[in-house]
UniProtKB/TrEMBL annotation:
Keywords from the named record: Hydrolase, Manganese, Metal-binding, Nickel
GO BP annotations listed: coenzyme A biosynthetic process
Protein name: Damage-control phosphatase ARMT1-like metal-binding domain-containing protein
GO molecular function, a single term: ATP binding
Cofactors: Mn(2+); Ni(2+)
Length: 297
């Protein structure tokens, strides 16, 4: 019954917009459509429908975290190590229940993180600034990086956190900005705090790296996409002097902010999981976007 009611409410909204795009706060765009969907879901009592799946995937990823970090730490060449970490972000970003095709794969037999790293679509990717970024990585020392994180499980734990750990090891202050409220399988602020408490050792370190410069912030967001003009006051304050902003995931990094311009260096990174987005970009399904913009000092 609830499924039928949900379908009818969403259908009514779309019919209204066909008649007048300005209804429901239009004109319609990706952010508005996501917001309306979440509002309807919450009105009908769907609060955190993937909570059980997220908890299970977080537990699996936590058990693999040490192995993934060690595999990267033994790579002596800095350029090869950062490329391995970036590939890990893409591999982790596959865990996305907002994609119908990927949700079906997970429901059947799950995915191997290391296999996903090895099976990424070959480079050059649809947007591929990785070589430029590797050069800048070897020459620049960012003081503060803000990372807008995406999904639970392998995405945050095996993809983003090893990369954030590498930034910490280089002396960068890292702010991880997570959703305020649940949306699909995106990691939330309280969940990320819990994840970090399980990964840190008794000295507060992350596999031997000091975490005193690691902060977890509530982005104020409750969608799988993000409007950067409407983040929380806390995050706006923390990010005011950032010299690197990273938007990870298709919703935040591609669908809503691919062409966003910043006063500091920025990185948009995510996997293309919808055929329509792949077609728009002129790439392939499951292609990778790695867009780096440097601001001249």
């Amino acid at each position: 019954m609830l499924t039928s009611e949900l379908r009818n409410l969403l259908k009514e909204i779309l019919e209204d917009m066909k008649k007048d795009p300005e209804t429901h706060g239009g004109p319609p765009d990706c952010i508005l459509l996501c917001r309306l969907r979440e509002q309807v879901l919450r009105e009908l009592g769907f609060r955190d429908i993937f909570k059980k799946v997220k908890d299970e995937e977080n537990a699996k990823a936590i058990s693999l975290f040490g192995d993934v970090v060690r595999l990267n730490d033994v790579i002596e060449d800095e350029g090869k190590r950062v490329e391995s970490l970036i590939r890990g972000i893409f591999a982790g970003n596959i865990f996305d229940l907002g994609s119908a095709q990927l949700a079906e794969v997970f429901s059947k037999d799950g995915m191997s993180f290391l296999a996903s790293c090895q099976n990424l679509v070959p480079r050059p990717w649809v947007i591929d600034d990785l070589e430029t970024f590797k050069v800048k990585w070897s020459k620049k020392a960012w003081k503060k990086a803000v990372i807008f994180v995406d999904n639970s499980g392998a995405d945050i734990i095996l993809g983003i956190l090893p990369f954030a750990r590498e930034l910490l090891r280089r002396g960068t202050q890292v702010i991880l900005a997570a959703n305020d409220l649940p949306s699909i399988n995106d990691v939330t602020y309280p969940e990320l705090i819990e994840i970090m408490s399980k990964l840190k050792d008794e000295k507060g370190q992350l596999m031997g790296v000091d975490t005193s410069k690691l902060l977890i912030a509530n982005s104020g967001n409750d969608l799988p996409v993000i409007d950067l003009t409407a983040v929380s006051q806390e995050l706006a304050y923390l990010a005011s002097d950032a010299d690197l902003v990273i938007l990870e995931g298709m919703g935040r990094g591609i669908e809503t902010n691919l062409y966003a311009q910043f006063k500091c260096d920025s990185l948009k990174i995510g996997m293309v999981k919808h055929p329509e987005v792949a077609q728009f970009l002129g790439g392939r399904l499951y292609d990778c976007v790695f867009k780096y913009n440097e601001v001249s000092s």
